[in-house]
Amino acid sequence: MREIAHRPEPRPVADDKKPPRKPNAKRPAPYRTGAGARARARGPRTRPPRPDLDDVVVLYGWHPVTEALRNDAREIRRLLATENAARRLAEELPDVAASPQIVRPGEIDALVGPDAVHQGLYAEAEPLEGYDLDTLPDDALVLALDQITDPHNVGAIVRTAAAFGVTAIVTTARHSPAATGVLAKSASGGLEHVPFVVVRNLGDALDRLGERGFLRIGLDSEGDETFESLPARRPALLVLGAEGKGLRVRTRSLCDVVARLDMAGAIKSLNVSNAAAIALYALTRRL
């Protein structure tokens, strides 16, 4: 008898069409990894509001806070410290008038941000009283900042200015960082020694200081003069231009002289805070 091979029954053909979605059905959220997903999981990060120039000044970090505590003219509204920082504060500044409120490090993190290096100290203080354009002394050495917006750069300039005995820093109410927070930390206590003169219009301020007899020196990598050839005298005003942009046209036109720093290397321009340090060294040697 001939053997008949077994043939499997044909399988039903699958329907190519997908079943219709329910009207209110939600698609499952895609699985995400990385910093962006972790940030979304944590929710929006809250940042402390920036104080106004005429409002509270925020100081954090060892040098900014301790210099403020040493300054009799600085009124401290609030002082927070971790246990370790308070212990060190009592050892190094036993006569400090303000008593710190002991807090955990995370409480200061919440005020200044998790990436800020506060070293266990945080203070809120009153702004310092300083000069205005008419009360600057006749032998003053002044810096003017032409729309320098980076608070780290401005803070480094303030620290350098304090080291070279600068009388004051002229800056504008707009297009400049407030003298608080990151700027104060970068200044490392320099804010207690170099006051800010905040003006509405820098060009008008340069005009008024020129009428008072200030020698207005613009700093530019393509300046016509060198600092060695300057007719240095007091009162003097050194004008620094913004990062990348340099001096604005009107600012440059109001300078009595525009000077450069001669450098032997291939790069002829520097970060504005570094250039300010070298220029102040060259200028104060002649003054």
UniProtKB/TrEMBL annotation:
One of its GO terms (molecular function) is RNA binding. SMART domains: SpoU_sub_bind. Residues 26-38 have a biased composition (Low complexity). Residues 58-131 form the RNA 2-O ribose methyltransferase substrate binding domain. The keyword Zinc does not apply. GO terms for biological process: methylation; RNA processing. Coiled coil: none annotated. The keyword rRNA-binding does not apply. InterPro entries: Alpha/beta_knot_MTases, Ribosomal_eL30-like_sf, rRNA_MeTrfase_TrmH, SpoU_MeTrfase, SpoU_subst-bd, tRNA_m1G_MTases_N. Residues 1-18 have a biased composition (Basic and acidic residues). Keywords: Methyltransferase, Transferase. Gene3D superfamilies: 3.30.1330.30, 3.40.1280.10. Residues 39-48 have a biased composition (Basic residues). GO terms for cellular component: cytosol. Residues 1-53 are annotated as: Disordered. SUPFAM superfamilies: alpha/beta knot (SSF75217), L30e-like (SSF55315). It comes from the Bacteria. This is 23S rRNA (Guanosine(2251)-2'-O)-methyltransferase RlmB.
